[in-house]
Amino acid sequence: MVLYWQFESADRQMRELVTRAIRDRSVLIADALRPTLRETDTTLPLVLNQELAKYGSDGTVLKLMFQPTAEREAGRFYFVASAPQIRGDAISAELDELNHRGILQRLSQACRWDATDEMRYRQADGSVELLTSIIPIVSRGGCWVLTSTHVTSDFLNTSIGRPYWETREIRIAAAIYLVGAVLAFLVAFSIRRSLGRFRTVANEISQGRIGDHAFSRRNFVPELSSVAGDFDKLVHDLRRVSRQIRQSAEDNAHSFKTPLAAIQSALQPVRRAIPESDARARRAIEIVDSSLARLLGLVNAAQRYDIGTAEMLEAPRVPTDVAQAVGEAARHFREILANRDIRLVRRLNEGVAVRAGRGMLELVLQNVLENAISFSPPGSTIVFTLIANDETVQLQVDDEGPGIDPVMIDHVFERYFSSRPGGAAGNDESVEHSGLGLWIVRRNVEALGGQVSAANRIGGGLSVVIVLPRNGHR
């Protein structure tokens, strides 16, 4: 718009210069004719036609009319000459046209005041605008009037006689701009569609529904080909790393469990060979057994952690029934719950599902339940409560343990954090803890797009709240 107004201002100045040049040219023609007209016999029009032809060779239409002094009051004019020359039978029609356009009235005024005049009008079909200059030449016998007519749009290719936006150049520029705008819109729309496809592909990859090179196959914008290739390479690398992590976890667990099992087997004859009276030796055997159990627990925890990491990278997100997952976690600890006389209450709505990788939600529930069991005294109750709406699923796990020091509760989901002092109520010495359980819970929940928090209950115990997006309706 700024450029348009700048060009329009320049064109307006050009029009003023052109209009002035046309007027000055008409005045010069009149001055050149003035000596001839003062001595010309009005009965010799052919001579004047030849004289006007000298100045109308560039397409300018010249007409010469005469008003005798005696006819001044009547306002009559006689058509004397023209260039190009008009046939005699067309003069009457020409005078009618001049009268219709109001030019004849202007002729009388120009002679009366001896002043030049100017007017613009369109042809009968309205397609071409004409600029006519009226120059009076007063002589002793009467008043000569020279009209000089130009087609405004042909003079120096300016916008005289029409709005600037109607000029050919502006219309071409507007067409180019419109085409450019359409192309820009199409490019932007195509890029937006490709980005939308990328989002869909990422979602399908996370759900394990498509294979390799998915981004490249869904991309139709050449400018995004390298980006699609990089995304495909990233997905390939993540899957390769996931397989390596899972394989490494299995190999490490096997490498550690084999010698640990061998040590435990080797201790059996040593334990039988130690006399009952040798308390010191038996205490040493118990310490070795406890250390082996702790090492085995750490190996299992490390294996679960690595497999969980691998599943976060590669495992597809599938609809998982929350109530069913809670039941599976409870069956895993059924014997411990029975031995500790801990009651498990489930207030769950059936059919509520979330999208989660296989094992991710189960591992979350197992770690939360294991944490609750380890702090719950015998004869207590653990309550699972499920609250669902259209957007989220909230699972709350309440126990009746001692809770956590309010100063430390903000650190409960940190790595290697543990608040299990020896001899605490509910602390099961047969279960080894690595301080990774609730950290794994937070990691998996956040990977699923949710949040987890913990708070001390008013009546005693701890409440863990897991909130997940409900995007897995069946």
List the helices and strands and how they pair.
Elements: H1 2-39, H2 45-53, E1 61-68, E2 78-83, H3 91-100, H4 103-113, E3 117-122, E4 129-138, E5 142-151, H5 168-206, H6 214-218, H7 225-273, H8 279-314, E6 317-321, H9 322-332, H10 334-340, E7 343-347, E8 353-357, H11 360-375, E9 381-388, E10 392-398, H12 437-447, E11 451-456, E12 462-469
Parallel strand pairs: 7-9
Antiparallel strand pairs: 1-2, 1-5, 3-4, 4-5, 6-8, 9-10, 10-12, 11-12
Helix pairs in contact: 7-8, 8-12, 9-11, 11-12
Provide an overview of this structure.
The structure is a single chain. The chain has 474 residues and is α+β, with helices and mostly antiparallel strands. The chain has helices at 2-39, 45-53, 91-100, 103-113, 168-206, 214-218, 225-273, 279-314, 322-332, 334-340, 360-375, 437-447, and strands at residues 61-68, 78-83, 117-122, 129-138, 142-151, 317-321, 343-347, 353-357, 381-388, 392-398, 451-456, 462-469. Among the domains are: 2-161, PAS domain (Beta-Lactamase, 2-Layer Sandwich); 316-474, 2-Layer Sandwich (Heat Shock Protein 90). The protein has a 5-stranded antiparallel β-sheet with strand order 2-1-5-4-3. It has a 5-stranded mixed β-sheet with strand order 7-9-10-12-11. A two-stranded antiparallel ribbon has the order 6-8. A hairpin with a 3-residue loop joins β9 and β10.
Structure summary:
The chain has 474 residues and is α+β, with helices and mostly antiparallel strands. 51% of the residues lie in helices and 18% in strands.
